[in-house]
Amino acid sequence: QLQLVESGGGLVQAGESLRLSCAASGNIFRLIPMGWFRQPPGKQRELVASIASGGSTNYADSVKDRFTISRDNAKNTVDLQMNSLKPEDTAVYYCNAAGRVGRSVWGQGTQVTVSS
Q: How far, CA to CA in Å, does 21 sit from each of 5, 69, 72, 76?
């Protein structure tokens, strides 16, 4: 199990950037793929980016070429750099294990609001 704390959200205008950070505690962190998820208002939570323990990445089509996920296994952190933000990126963002292995209790998330 991981304990997860997300930070870095805020209110920005369309076209601007934000960098989200997730601090994780737990020995399994470095061994498992991690992901950033988001839950827009009134919608289900969705996976937007994932990164394997070795660093390979995958992105949802909606964020490809705009978002970049990275991790530091020594510091147990996973970040999400978000560029060219759009109003439809507005959501609460969470980090967690990308797959079932290591999936933990969800943290409080961090709110991202993009105004047009």
A: 8, 10, 11, 11
Please, which residues bridge with residue 113 across strands? 11
Q: How many helices (H) and strands (E) does the chain have?
A: 0, 10
Which helix (H) or strand (E) covers residue 64, if one does? none
Per the CB < 8 A criterion, the answer to whether 40 and 21 are in contact is: no
Residue 45, burial from CB neighbour count under 10 angstroms (0-12, 13-18, 19+)? middle
Cα–Cα distance, 46 to 113 (Å, whole number): 17
Structure tokens at 116: 């047009």
The pLDDT profile of the chain, 116 residues, written as one tens digit per residue, is: 899 999 999 999 999 999 999 999 988 999 999 999 999 999 999 999 999 999 999 999 999 999 999 999 999 999 999 999 999 999 999 999 999 999 999 999 999 999 99
Residue tagged 């704390």 (tokens): 5
The backbone torsions φ and ψ at residue 30, rounded to the nearest 5 degrees and listed phi first, read -70, -10
